[in-house]
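[SOLVED] Predicted holo structure with magnesium ion

Edit: marking solved, answer below. Original request kept for reference. I posted the sequence and ligand SMILES and asked for the 3D complex as structure tokens.
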Amino acid sequence: MEELLKVNDISMVFGGLRAVSNFTMEINKGELVGLIGPNGAGKTTAFNMLTGVYEPTEGTITFEGNLVNGKKPYQVTAMGMARTFQNIRLFSELSVIDNVKIAYNMHVKYSLPEAVARFGRYFSEEEEIINKALSLLKIFKLDDKAYEQAKNLPYGEQRRLEIARALATEPKLLLLDEPAAGMNPQETHELMEMIRWIRDEFKLSILLIEHDMSLVMNVCERIYVLEYGCCIAQGLPEEIKSNKRVIEAYLGEEVS
Amino acid sequence: MNNIRKRDIMSLIGCFALYVVMQLMIMFEIIGPFWELNIVLIGINIILSVSLNLINGYTGQFSIGHAGFLAVGAYTGAIVTVKLGLPFELALIVGTICAGALGFLIGLPTLRLQGDYLAIATLGLGEIIRICILNIEYVGGASGLMGIPRHTNFAWVFLVGVIVIFFIKNFVNSAPGRACLAIRENEIAAETMGIDTTKYKVMAFTLGAAFAGTAGVLFSHYFYIAHPASFTFMRSFDILTMVVLGGLGSMSGAITGAVLLTGISAFLAEYPEWRMVIYSITLIVLMLYRPQGLFGNKELSLKMFKLGGGNNGRTAEGK
Ligand SMILES: Nc1ncnc2c1ncn2[C@@H]1O[C@H](COP(=O)(O)OP(=O)(O)OP(=O)(O)O)[C@@H](O)[C@H]1O
Ligand SMILES: [Mg+2]
């Protein structure tokens, strides 16, 4: 299997707090990997380091052999990583379709003069962007709401829009930060089916943060477990399920 | 896409019709010299408010130093015509480029600041520009640069105004413009969607500054003089008020704000003692009852008058 992402012994220190400590991970092409752990374990912090929001205090991250450390988030996105946020961050005053169109920006080739004087590649590329955006929205059953303001969508649809927007950057690795948070069981089930389908359809790798253990167990092929910033276990769902330290970390929670 | 082209052509025809009507009214003196002067002023203020709206409204960067760029345009333009004896058309280009270049240089370091800090920095920079001009003898220092020929007329202001409005309208409906909107909406998300936020903030700031410079050239070549007192921070606030009154992030709003406030000022010219009172009350009432501005961030469109047509007007064009 071909290696896509390699995380080598990274740590993130905030003042006296080691939010993530000596974390090592790799993701291969086409894999669907889970990252779980109790509240405050450092999952989102790990995501923020992968996507360039924070620079790791120690350790290195490489993506397809290229160093991620020190890159800005937009450069990381250009390398082929896209993410969603735990607390939804849509362009809420803009329309649903504009949210997706913005994510296509990286691939736009027309120049500023072509845009403001409306000639050359402007019309053809804009049309292409709209069509691509609409077909992506269709996959997420949002096409009939394309021209509504994003903030007016119900919660579950906002989450789906975030995923659609991330996919529009045409990533090789999709990072989802608790995409099922706040969804009801029915929606969650559909979402998990969809995540697997996305991976196959778009031929990408997915790293999924999830709080709910049972959920990750069903959909992920490999799992990393964080607790207090340290990776306490990794392996196949079966192995994680029976791991004593994981059960302790999730004490009181049913591991099914 | 053909629809967009058709709509653009229709709007241009509309603009031309408006121009012909107004020009005829000026020629046959239905519009007298007092109102002609104010119409030119309205035109210049429209250019200023739509260009500031690009920075403050669409990109969400709170700048309040617009008068500084207006001054740069006014003076550099006047240098071209008065000191160098070159044509007015060149003055327009030079004034625009100089103000834009300064905007670029100022934008690079300051746009890393956020919110209040950026506001204070731009306020300070606007004043610095004015004080610098005040101390340059070459351009007349405190007594101003006099003897500027009147090249600006209604036709020029109208032409430049239409170009600037179309420029900004098209910009906002393109990829770079959407990048600016994304920055306004959520900078972190914009960055994560592959947008180089610094680049687009500086781009919007530079373009806004450049158009303020164009307005400056028109201004000094209408009023025969470029004087430091015309470019104080009060002037910046005037422009900001127009944008906020109309609704940040709305082209229709910026235009309406400029027309309304300049118009009110002109109407009240006969009652100078009441002018500021009525002006202030208008603002207070408006901010109490419509804090998002007259238009919010929507655009004037037929849809606005239909029931339930509350969709963000900007995107209506993309359909
Ligand atoms: N910018 C920051 N400055 C200081 N401390 C931070 C910062 N970001 C996160 N932390 C701390 O790091 C720890 C890990 O936080 P993180 O958000 O990564 O946890 P998480 O695993 O995503 O938790 P949750 O399941 O609640 O989302 C927490 O103690 C948090 O308070
Ligand atoms: Mg988190």
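OP edit: Chain B has 13 helices and no strands. Thanks to everyone who chimed in.
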